Amino acid sequence: MFRNSGARMPSIGAGSVDIRSIFGSILNVIKTRANQICAATCDGLILRMHYRWTFCLLLGGFLTVWYSWYHRDVITCVSHFNAETQVRLDYINICLSYPYIEDNGSKRYLLFYRWISWSLLVLAGVYYIPRKVSKNFDNARCKKLLEDLAANAHRYDQAERELVERAARYIIFNLKTHNGLYWKYLFVNVLALLVDLFAMQFLDFILQGRFIQYGFNSYPFDRDPQKFTDYMSQTFPPFASCELTLENQLVNKRTEKFGCHLTIMELYEKVFLILWLWLILLTFVTCCYIVFLFLMWLPCVRAYLLRTAKPVHANDKVRGVVHAVAKNCKIGDIYLLYRVKGHLSHARFYELMTRLSDPALFTKQIQQAPPGTIPDGKDKMPPNKQADTLRNRRPNMPQDPPMNPEYLHQLLASPEMMGRHPQSPDQRTPLLKKNTSILIE
């Protein structure tokens, strides 16, 4: 456990942790995820930078620090009274949690030294939240359409024409109903920005208010290896002091002072500098993308998103077709067409735009609806007559067949018939008498 008055964290099991196999498994998972086609309606590059790239960066930082804690000396302490005597393990355990440096006459405790690796693991889980939210916001039919387009994007045969036909039928039938996709996608990107801001504030709290300005104050990264007065060395000091007093309950009513070398601090300063640069870049790119999503309300931006190269066989101007489509579509339809554009060639996308540029597109879609889907008012029955119960049922009574007027006229003109039936046939008799007379005859 001791080696040159240093302390090493106990390894898992018998100390046979194969870090190469762990990294190999992680790399295989990353390659598998990277090769998957992104066809979700509420997903994009900015979100993948959060839940995939930043997640892997934080997880890699955690594993790197964790490996250093379990496979090398993390602290070396000596007593100020007797530097040749090995420091007890229980004293070193306290020094791992409460080292300090002198800062302007006061003590600044480095409370993050022992637990900072777990903060990276917590942030890795937080950065996966936008992915879970975006999966719940997905539109199944739109996702299936984008998956089919992405899976056959490399084909140039008849399949591409069929995909264009399928996309046109779906968009025309569901025109002006995709605004929810746009607002959900915007919400997930705003959520990703909030995660970035939370990560900055969380790490600034962990590092005692020295993370947000870490990169700015460290520039131009001039180091002071003698007195360690530069900002990086002050944030992650490699040498610190440790003091055990009566409150620690481990000394016999005396004060013990130790000088400690925090060996992992040299790794911390590099890991957090890379993390600071990435979070600054990620926050800036996310803000710019959210502004771009808001700019989609402008007609000029919509025309720019739908602009495509004009094929040789095209007759209409691209600008006129684009403006006609923008006039027929809402913001959600523009967003969906922008996603579809990435999976089609210029000629096929122009063909799709031509079909959507018809001014009477919505009217034709209503007229093409199959008859009988919407019942007329005269066909509707009141609810009290629709109930079919035994109480409301009536016995099947025989009904008189419809009488022919010519046949009735012949009967009236025949004297034999009038003599046999003196009563006028147009006078109605009760049902019982009529049936009785028939039986008698």
TrEMBL record:
Residues 370-441 are annotated as: Disordered. Keywords: Cell junction, Cell membrane, Gap junction, Ion channel, Ion transport, Membrane, Transmembrane, Transmembrane helix, Transport. Its main location: other. It is found in: Cell junction, Gap junction; Cell membrane. It comes from Cherax quadricarinatus (Australian red claw crayfish). The chain crosses the membrane at residues 53-70, 112-129, 185-207, 275-298. It is a multi-pass membrane protein. Signal peptide: none annotated. It holds the Pfam family Innexin. Belongs to the pannexin family. This is Innexin. It comes from the Eukaryota. GO terms for molecular function: gap junction channel activity.
